[in-house]
Amino acid sequence: MSIKVEDVSKRFITKHSDTETLSRVNIEFKPGEFICILGPSGCGKSTLLNIIAGLEEATSGRVTLNGKQVTGPGPDRVVMFQEAALFPWLNVIDNVEFGMKMAGVAPAQRRERALKYLKMVHLTKFQHAFIHELSGGMRQRVALARALTFDSEVLLMDEPFAALDSQTKMLLQIELQQIWLETKKTILFVTHNVEEATILADRVVVMSANPGGIKKEFQIQVARPRQPGNVDLAYLMNNIMQELKTEVEKVAKAEYDNDWNIQKNPVLPSINDNLGSGV
Amino acid sequence: MIIWEVAYELGVEYLRLWKAYVFPSPIDVFKTLYSLFADQTLVIAILSSAKRIILGYLVSVILGLIIGLIIVKFKWLDENASPLILGLQTLPSICWLPFAILWYGLNESAIMFVIAIGSTFAVAIALEAGIKNINPLYIRAARTMGASGFKIYWNVILPASLPAIVSGLKQGWSFAWRALMAGEMMSATKGLGQVLMVGRDLADISQVMAVMIVIIVLGVVVDKLIFGQIEQNIRQRWGLDRA
Ligand SMILES: Nc1ncnc2c1ncn2[C@@H]1O[C@H](COP(=O)(O)OP(=O)(O)O)[C@@H](O)[C@H]1O
Ligand SMILES: [Mg+2]
Fold it and tell me: ipTM value of the model?
């Protein structure tokens, strides 16, 4: 299933400001591809993803899915958010079944499929637990299981692991790669973490800031499953980091006071410090 | 209880601070309570009060939910009607009695109206606030999962605002209960409030206190056992108790 983003721009006009968040973004995603959108906070990653999801409307330009224009949200493009967005009034299994219930799937069939996907994320033991009884990582697993039940060819993920501790994050990154290999979905994964992007993606798209746009793309052809600390990835990470650095600085300059300077305040660590991390 | 009896013994029997008809002994009160139950007076009163409040309350809940939903649905109504409803809500329900009597005459419908009116607004306001405060993420997530229109209301918006709705129902109940007593005392021919007034007319302080005890017990039972239990269940399910 191919997604085409054609000339998409987005302005946010509020009482106090008029921001051009995205400016003429053009990009295409091939079926079964794992793409990471990488960029500094505030560069418009979520906005782009929301426009593709149909949650936000582009000011101009259009998004098509297999040639059909996207006009609103729908179960053919499931979204996973940074917060799990699970419903606290339902237990785990009912949360996983939610989408199928909306689609009118019969209860017995719903249960069977929900269990299958809960098994995929290793949480069948917790099927009757309530959401507040789960850890952050478990919640994201449930959200992932819920997203998988749609059997959609496209999965949109907006920094789903950003709020997790690094061990949990690593586990989930490995699981997600496995699930992707099994299901062959098109995954569009937004992150601001260079390491995460290189571990997960076939293609990393670096965004520029102010206004947001596509800056550069990197193909990543390293064997999977990839783990943090992979030597082949280190070289790529270094290149990507260079691209990102100027954008981070740009955002920082716009958001912070004028005396801010990236040389004095290095926000991104040197790549060499990162080599052994997570091993 | 013992304090009460001691106070009675001291104040009435020995020191003669109060007369027995202003400060009854607990024994007298329970004797009266027993005889009021034995001759069915209280049973009939409780049943007729219960019938009134259940009917009046049900009507108000249905009306309140409908009004709340309508206000949420239409933005201009929200801007214009909300202050009005808020204003109406601060008016104690019993102030509606003269109005109701003019409309319906001095009868059952007038009391029913007074019971319903107070809790209707409480329920409507709670529902509106509940819906407005829903985490927008729930709605966004539901929309990407193919929920829309009625389905989103039934499966997401209503359950998500349930904690607020329940506290509105609870508050509505207490308004209705107060309005019921006030209405009955002023204009009923049957019911707890009326038995209370009979006690006053007969200058029978034991009867007055006996009925007050019944009213308190019923109020606490409904508040704690029914609404308290529902609230507790929801809080547990949602994990709201983990501070
Ligand atoms: N609802 C909105 N109203 C006004 N401005 C917005 C809104 N959403 C996003 N923006 C603007 O768009 C910019 C990019 O936001 P976002 O897409 O969330 O960035 P990212 O996900 O890359 O961190 C923000 O800096 C903000 O100025
Ligand atoms: Mg974001």
Answer: 0.84
